[in-house]
Description:
It is a single chain. The protein is mainly alpha-helical. It is about 45% helix and about 5% strand. It has 9 helices and 4 strands. The chain has helices spanning about 5, 25-50, 55-70, 85-90, 95-105, 110, 135-145, 160-170, 195-200; strands spanning about 10-15, 15-20, 125-130, 185. The strands form 2 sheets. The chain has a two-stranded antiparallel ribbon with strand order 1-2. Helix 5 packs across helix 8. The longest helix has 23 residues, at about 25-50. The N and C termini lie far apart (about 80 Å). About 25% of the residues are buried. Mean pLDDT is about 85; it is low at about 200-210.
Amino acid sequence: xxxxxxxxxxxxxxxxxxxxxxxxxxxxxxxxxxxxxxxxxxxxxxxxxxxxxxxxxxxxxxxxxxxxxxxxxxxxxxxxxxxxxxxxxxxxxxxxxxxxxxxxxxxxxxxxxxxxxxxxxxxxxxxxxxxxxxxxxxxxxxxxxxxxxxxxxxxxxxxxxxxxxxxxxxxxxxxxxxxxxxxxxxxxxxxxxxxxxxxxxxxxxxxxxxx
Length: 211
């Protein structure tokens, strides 16, 4: 019997037609296995790991937009990290993009993609550990807190980025992400309104801020 005939699978004979046993080549099976393993790793990294954010096309686009906006800082000058300035930029979507990008690049590993809290506290509720008033957010960002658990960012971020990041974080208050970390610290009064900060006649606004 020839080698060709030996490969015939007799039980697969139909109407006089016999099927040959031609297994998939080993190199093809290996290649398929490698692509399968790669797909699993790729999915877990790009869709589940916060470390992949800087590599995603959409995040690179946001980063490029933020870089362009930072080049436009001459338009707004050097911002002061005070209550009135933070309140003003909480209402400026164009500049909040810079704050959001800074948060994505530097804060998600501790505070989560939606600021829901991981090792760091939840930033979407009304409880704060080191913040008593609005400008304290910028102070904590710049100088750190909790004996280094919250890093010092004033040497790595532009002064304006600190203010805009503070505005972005302040704007997350009241969004209360489902499944977020349990509240830490003490509840504090709502943020003041922009008008209150300007004339000093009022002290607070509704707790829930626009996201």
